[in-house]
């Protein structure tokens, strides 16, 4: 681990840039002093988005961006009038990233399940954990629970994980 000289964030030794502030650890000389290049990051914002919409955006940008930060929340809602349908979605998700960067590949996995009698989403948690590739670096991990109306105390659970894959 190394420490960013600008924001003091601990980052992996192999990281070239700070995930928080964009500090370039390799730097270059410019003019009379030591100059560290600051890259400008961009943001992709999703609001009330289906998980597939976010997943498709990640797939379209694989190998083209370097994600520095992800912030978001997932939410449960009842929809429909006669036939109630419970859906999970990303209430908001902001992905900060550097464009035009090669070599970074990302994946997303999520699972939804309904449990009864205090299981606390254990099966959902295991299903997601088992679908994350070995050695992947988790960038975003959110799990939420909600009560299912008319299901005698049953709960619905959702876990969403975005990760960086090793290699392709």
Describe the structure.
The chain is mainly beta. The chain folds into two domains: about 1-40, no CATH class; about 40-165, no CATH class. The chain has helices at about 50-60, 120-130, and strands at about 1-5, 10, 30, 35, 40-50, 65-80, 85-100, 105-115, 135-145, 155-165. Strand 9 (about 135-145) and strand 10 (about 155-165) form a beta hairpin.
Question: What characteristics describe this protein?
Answer:
mainly beta; 168 residues; 3-stranded antiparallel beta sheet; 2 domains; 10 strands
Biggest pleated sheet: 3 strands, antiparallel
Mean pLDDT: 79
Encode the helix/strand succession as letters: EEEEEHEEEHEE
Q: Give the strand line-up of the largest sheet.
A: 5-7-6
Q: Which structural category do the helix and sheet elements fall into?
A: mainly beta
Which helices and strands, and how do they pair?
Elements (H helix, E strand, L loop, with lengths): L1 E2 L6 E2 L16 E3 L2 E3 L6 E8 L1 H11 L4 E14 L5 E14 L6 E11 L6 H10 L5 E11 L7 E11 L3
Antiparallel strand pairs: 1-2, 3-4, 5-7, 6-7, 8-10, 9-10
